[in-house]
Design a protein that fits this description.
By secondary structure, the chain is of the alpha/beta class. The chain has nine helices and 22 strands. Strands 3-4-5-15-6-16-20-18-19 form a nine-stranded mixed beta sheet. A six-stranded antiparallel beta sheet has the order 10-9-12-7-8-11. Strand 4 and strand 5 form a beta hairpin.
């Protein structure tokens, strides 16, 4: 697998270790511990180059992988270049074999067969590939005040006002009755038009200024402008339909069987003079899914069969047959065991495998904000640039203590910087980990912190992204 390496390193970056602290001496000569050390501060020159090159590959990937559909198609392309082949009824289970399996174009599992029997358990990294966005309603086209617009609804939790006055793209596909699929992508290329949800100007918004934060823009007001020139009958909607027919060969009724999303059109960009941060749409949670993809590609012949389970619909509750609440993953595991045992299989083999399986459920989470630090309790707050954060939710949602200790061991052995994250004043659950732990697998949640999570342009630290990749790689390889 060849990755794009960019040579424009404008600043000398700093460093990466496991967990370090800063120490100073007070007036009495006593050592005073000041807290964790940024993960940048112990990197060698070669490690800095690795971090920056990895970030360029990540940004390049994310510029195209705007939805779960495009993530899966891009990931399959990369995996095939790395020697993965589609799992088929003829695929053998020899140690080191590399396969991928796609569930309905929206969920992807990458598989590296281990040297041990699968009944001894799998190693699974799970993450989700959907992100908060706008979607078109089944009959989206309408006219208002000389404009044609699309009606939308929300996928996942967003702050509505963040989606106005920014360039938007339309991506996805239309499935026609004859079985053909028509891909649609408008707004991502430099020569494309973009779409926009216009805000009220400050000259005329007086009657709306009392709205609260989440209601500054209401859900039914989040409709992008798509055209304004009417046809000869003075109908803008008909002009749009004529364009869709000529450009894509689709009719208005075909939009009922479409999956079309409105997403930010901005390309990923570096943030700051030192370029240590990245602003990217969709980092929740394509970030963890990308690092899982890259980590499993590093595996040769692991002891335990390794899976990267990259799943849809987490942002709406893990629903549907492409979400983690479905039976897809367990069915896939049973199929792999069946094949390894050449058909000599019973249900207890699967149950033993599930009990012995170890899982990292990875997702991003909010990090300490420089302007609003009080939303976190400082001693349990995840900070950008300080590495992977182990999520300690409380309220019965934590991994058990012995499994946390097991994960600490390989993180420290691999020199991965890590911290912890616990929300202030409340206990809460995890991401897809709940779906897997109820199957009797051993599950821990960890990820990295972001600023502006669930926004149109979330911010991550390059060193944290690379640390997460290293953590997943160590998880697959750890021999206890």
């Amino acid at each position: 697998m060849q990755f794009k390496i960019f040579n424009r390193i404008r600043f000398a970056m700093l460093a990466i270790p496991a967990v370090f602290v800063l120490a100073s001496t007070n007036v009495f000569g006593q050592e005073v511990v000041e807290g964790p050390k940024p993960a940048w501060s112990s990197l060698s020159d070669s490690e800095r180059r690795d971090v920056l090159a990895f970030a360029e590959d990540y940004k390049d990937f994310m510029s195209r992988a705007k939805t779960e559909l495009s993530f899966v198609s891009e990931a399959v392309r990369i995996a095939r270049d790395a020697g993965f082949r589609q799992l088929t009824p003829a695929s053998d289970m020899r140690p080191g074999a590399r396969y991928y399996d796609v569930n309905r174009d929206r969920t992807l599992t990458l598989i590296v067969v281990g040297s041990n029997e699968m009944t001894s358990g799998f190693r699974v990294v799970g993450a989700h590939v959907d992100s908060p966005r706008l979607e078109l309603k089944g009959r989206p086209l309408y006219e208002a005040e000389g404009f044609a617009l699309f009606q939308t609804y929300r996928h996942g939790g967003i702050k509505n006002y963040q989606w106005v006055n920014i360039p938007l793209a339309l991506v996805g596909h239309v499935d026609k009755k004859d079985g053909t699929r028509v891909p649609v992508s408008v707004g991502l290329d430099d020569d494309d038009p973009i779409f926009i949800i216009p805000d009220l100007s400050p000259h005329v918004d007086h009657d709306y200024r009392e709205r609260l934060n989440r209601d500054v823009i209401m859900g039914e007001e989040m409709d992008p402008i798509i055209a304004s020139i009417p046809n000869e009958e003075n109908s803008i909607s008909d002009a749009v339909l004529s364009y869709l027919a000529s450009e894509y060969g689709i009719e208005e009724e075909d939009l009922v069987s479409a999956e079309l999303a409105i997403v930010p059109a901005m390309a990923p960009r570096d943030v700051g003079f030192d370029r240590s941060l990245m602003a990217v749409y969709g980092q929740d949670d394509k970030l963890s899914s990308f690092t899982a993809l890259r980590a499993i590609m590093e595996q040769g012949t692991p002891a335990q069969t390794s899976l990267a389970f990259l799943v849809d619909n987490e942002e709406v509750g893990n629903v549907n047959n492409t979400g983690s609440n479905s039976d897809y993953l367990v069915d896939l595991m049973s199929e792999l065991i069946f094949r390894q045992q050449n058909g000599e299989y019973n249900d207890m083999d699967l149950r033993r495998a599930l009990k012995n399986t170890r899982v990292v459920s990875s997702d991003v989470n909010p990090g300490v904000h420089p302007t609003y630090p009080a939303v976190w309790e400082a001693g349990n707050a995840p900070r950008l640039g300080f590495g992977v954060n182990l999520k300690l939710y409380g309220g019965g949602f934590n991994a058990n203590s012995e499994y946390i200790a097991w994960n600490r061991a390989y993180l420290d052995d691999a020199g991965v910087a890590w911290q912890t994250a616990t929300y202030k004043g409340r206990a809460s659950g995890g991401t897809i980990g709940n779906s897997l732990s109820r199957r009797n697998m051993e599950v821990i949640d960890y990820g990295i912190p972001l600023l502006s999570i669930h926004s149109t342009y979330a911010v991550s630290s390059k060193v944290d992204v690379h640390m997460l990749y290293r953590a997943m790689n160590a998880f697959y390889q750890y021999d206890d």
